[in-house]
Write a structure and sequence with these properties.
This protein is globular. With about 220 residues, the chain is of the alpha/beta class. It is built from eight helices and seven strands. Helix 1 packs antiparallel against helix 3. The protein has a single domain, classed as Vaccinia Virus protein VP39 (Rossmann fold).
Length: about 220
C-alpha cells in the first residue's frame, strides 16, 4: 500500500466520488481530506501501543477506522455501522485501497456487543451521540484495561458534566479531555479507561441509551 498520506488522499477521493451511498457530510476530495481525514489523525496517539483489536462504532464512511488501519497495519480493525448501503460502499473502497486489516460489519452496536462482549482493546466513535450515550454503547465492547474514545466539539463540557460521577456504573474511569487543535478550542478527544467489567445490564435493548439515560436511573 502507498505511504499513509498518499493512501488517505486516495481514500478521500473515493469518498468524494462514491455514488452508492452518501458517506460523509462534506463534498470534494480536498475538503474531505483536510477537514475530516486529517482530523482523525489526532487520535493515533491513543491507539494501543502493541498489536490488538479495535472497533470504530457508527463508522459511516470509515472515519476514523480507515485512518487507524492505514497507519497501524498491526491492528485488527472492525468498522461497525447499521446501514447496509454504507457498509457495502465502504467495503468497495477498502478493496480499492487494498487495506487488509479491516473488516466491515453491518449491525447495531447493541446487538454486536452481545456477541462480542469486552473483546476489544479500544472502541472509538466520531460524531455519534452525546458523551454519556456514546460511553454506554462503547463500554460493553471493551475489555478491562482497554480504552474508549470519542471526538467531541464545543458542547463537550456540558455533555461530561451532565453525567457527573456516574461513569463507574459502566466500568469506566472519569473522562480525560484532550484538546488537540490549537486553532480551535472546541476540538476535543474524550477518553475513558475501562477499569472494571461493564455490568451485564449493558448493552440495553436498541434505542434505550438515547432515550433513558443511564446516569439518571
Amino acid at each position: 500500500m502507498a505511504a499513509p498520506r498518499s493512501a488517505l488522499y486516495k481514500y478521500a477521493e473515493l469518498l468524494a466520488n462514491c455514488t452508492r451511498a452518501r458517506l460523509v457530510g462534506t463534498r470534494g476530495t480536498d475538503e474531505i481530506f483536510n477537514l475530516q481525514v486529517l482530523d482523525c489523525e489526532s487520535s493515533l496517539n491513543f491507539l494501543p501501543e502493541k498489536s490488538g483489536k479495535i472497533i470504530d462504532v457508527g463508522s459511516g464512511g470509515g472515519l476514523p477506522g480507515v485512518v487507524w488501519a492505514v497507519y497501524r497495519p498491526d491492528l485488527k480493525i472492525i468498522l461497525l455501522d447499521s446501514i447496509n448501503k454504507k457498509c457495502e460502499a465502504v467495503r468497495e473502497i477498502i478493496n480499492e485501497l487494498e487495506i487488509k486489516n479491516i473488516e466491515v460489519v453491518c449491525s447495531r452496536s447493541e446487538d454486536f456487543a452481545k456477541l462480542h462482549r469486552e473483546e476489544f482493546d479500544l472502541a472509538g466513535a466520531r460524531a455519534m451521540a452525546s458523551a454519556g450515550v456514546t460511553a454506554e454503547l462503547l463500554s460493553p465492547l471493551v475489555k478491562v484495561g482497554g480504552k474508549i474514545l470519542t471526538f467531541k466539539g464545543e458542547k463537550v463540557h456540558e455533555e461530561i458534566s451532565e453525567v457527573e460521577d456516574k461513569w463507574k456504573k459502566l466500568g469506566l474511569s472519569k473522562p480525560s479531555l484532550n484538546f488537540y487543535d490549537e486553532n480551535s478550542s472546541a476540538k476535543c478527544l474524550v477518553t475513558w479507561e475501562k477499569i472494571s467489567h461493564c455490568p451485564k445490564e449493558f448493552p440495553r435493548r436498541t434505542g434505550l441509551a438515547g432515550t433513558k439515560k443511564f446516569w439518571l436511573a
